[in-house]
Amino acid sequence: MPASYIVTCKKDATPEQVEAAKQHARDQGGQIGHEYNLIKGFQVIFPEDTIHTLENHEHVEAVEKDQVVRTQ
After folding, report:
1. pLDDT by residue (tens digit) across 4-54?
2. Can you give the pLDDT at residue 1?
3. Which of 67, 29, 25, 64 is nearest to 48 (CA)?
4. Closest residue by Cα to residue 64 from 2, 7, 3
5. CA-CA distance, 42 to 35, in Å (whole number)?
6. Are 44 and 31 in contact (CB under 8 A)?
7. Cα torsion 62, 24, 15, 42: sign
8. At 14, phi and psi to the nearest 5?
9. Beta strands of the chain (E only): which ranges?
10. 29 phi-psi bin (left φ>0, alpha ψ -120 to 50, beta other)
11. In a 3-state reduction of DSSP, which class is residue 26?
């Protein structure tokens, strides 16, 4: 089953730098899903058991597993 992640780019990242982060994900076998407007970020889906280095990209602030969030 594929793994989905939310990638948040640094607040001062330019559109070109965000695109560079997306290309970095694609180069590692990821498929871009949703692209977000409220934050500088995107969803990326990787095949199961792949290793990626998105956290180390110079324009990426955070990478977290995409999951359902609920409020009580």
Report:
1. 999 999 999 999 999 999 999 999 999 999 999 889 999 999 987 777 788
2. 78
3. 29
4. 7
5. 4
6. yes
7. negative
8. -80, 165
9. 3-9, 31-36, 41-46, 60-65
10. left
11. helix
